Amino acid sequence: MTTSSFVDGSEAIQDSMAKALELSPVESHLHPEGSFDLADHPVPTGLEEIWRFTPLKRLRDLHKDAPLDGDHHTVEVDAAPGVTAVSVPVADSARGVSGYVPVDRVSARAWAAATSVFEVTIPADAEIEQPTTIRLHGAGIEKAGAGHLLVRAGRFSRAVVVVDYDGSATWAENIEVVVEDGAHLTFVTIQDWNDDSVHVVTQHATVGRDAELRHVAVSLGGDVVRASTSADYRGTGGSVEMLGVYFADAGQHIEHRLFADHTAPRTKSNVEYKGALQGQDAHTVWIGNVLIRKEAEGILTYESNDNLVLTDGAKADSVPNLEIETGDIEGAGHASTTGRFDDQHLFYLQSRGIPEEEARRLVVHGFFNDIIRRIGVPALQERLVASIEAELAEHVGRID
């Protein structure tokens, strides 16, 4: 395996810090100040902008002082030929190579508590057809645990990495993704937890010159899932596509917070998330943030979120934000919708002899189809369609 295209962790961190200093200062709630010092992250009260939607009482004190030394989980790895996937002690790892600095208390606590880093490395110039899959299975919620994952795609490589969560866990985590110049990486997370799980994860990606990242988030299970995902750019021509699908049942809280930070000229970002909700107190939150800095001339960005509310008692919050510091851009926009079934679609299908329940299923599948077909991993697409069908089969009789 060739890893010479990667600089070591300390040099990369210094380079990232120097790069950050070169950027124009930004005073914005879209760009929170990061710190490794836990003292700089007071315990949230729920009044803070970044925590106001999160049910803090259900986090099992991940945001306070719950010990993060639990080991009630197992990890299985199916690494594609040519890909290295190993656990490395923190002291020997390249943690921080993405330039990420914790921006909230849970992230800072997970950073401090992690004793090892799971590193996935795709060699430079490699074209890997088979996905690399990491499966984390939780075996209990009594003790909270913390993890750290680092995925690095070498220059001009092409690969798919999937992280699959299931079982029961109380889990805090940081994920770093580095896409080197000219590389193409599809990175997928599937949160298919049991209904008693709590998962708070912060992900940060940095994208090189003319590199492409397709980030896919699938959230189906868990009691509380809060995923914060950010991306920035290390060179011109970088492209980030963030796709998301989520389905919340009664009592579930699923929260996605996205941040595209355009730190280089002629870069692109496209954020598209779709969610469905059903059952009493099902709650989804989508926050889409885009920051276009002075340096980011000629960029193109768009973000959208669509929510389909299937029953009474479910609630979707959707907040797109766009902040522009330069007038020299190619295009920027955002959109958000939340609504119930389109009666005209149902009438159209029923008028052609399709039973009402089947018509409702078809409408939901059609709602998700545009995103599912763009994931680009056939096995995952089939699994997602089956999971949505299972969710609908459980409640279809009560859909309004």
Describe the structure.
This is Fe-S cluster assembly protein SufD. The chain contains five helices and 18 strands. The chain has 400 residues and is α/β, with parallel strands linked by helices. The model is unreliable at 1-14 (pLDDT under 50). It has helices at 9-22, 105-113, 343-350, 356-372, 378-395, and strands at 73-78, 84-89, 116-122, 132-139, 145-153, 158-168, 170-179, 184-191, 198-207, 212-219, 224-233, 239-248, 253-262, 268-277, 283-292, 300-309, 315-324, 331-339. The protein has one domain (9-341). The longest helix is centred in the C-terminal third of the chain and has 18 residues, at 378-395. The N and C termini lie far apart (55 Å).
List the helices and strands and how they pair.
Layout: H1 9-22, E1 73-78, E2 84-89, H2 105-113, E3 116-122, E4 132-139, E5 145-153, E6 158-168, E7 170-179, E8 184-191, E9 198-207, E10 212-219, E11 224-233, E12 239-248, E13 253-262, E14 268-277, E15 283-292, E16 300-309, E17 315-324, E18 331-339, H3 343-350, H4 356-372, H5 378-395
InterPro entries: Fe-S_cluster_assembly_SufBD, SUF_FeS_clus_asmbl_SufBD_core, SUF_FeS_clus_asmbl_SufBD_sf, SUF_FeS_clus_asmbl_SufD
Organism: Aeromicrobium endophyticum
GO biological process, one term: iron-sulfur cluster assembly
In short:
This protein has helices spanning 9-22, 105-113, 343-350, 356-372, 378-395; strands spanning 73-78, 84-89, 116-122, 132-139, 145-153, 158-168, 170-179, 184-191, 198-207, 212-219, 224-233, 239-248, 253-262, 268-277, 283-292, 300-309, 315-324, 331-339. It is α/β, with parallel strands linked by helices. The chain is globular.
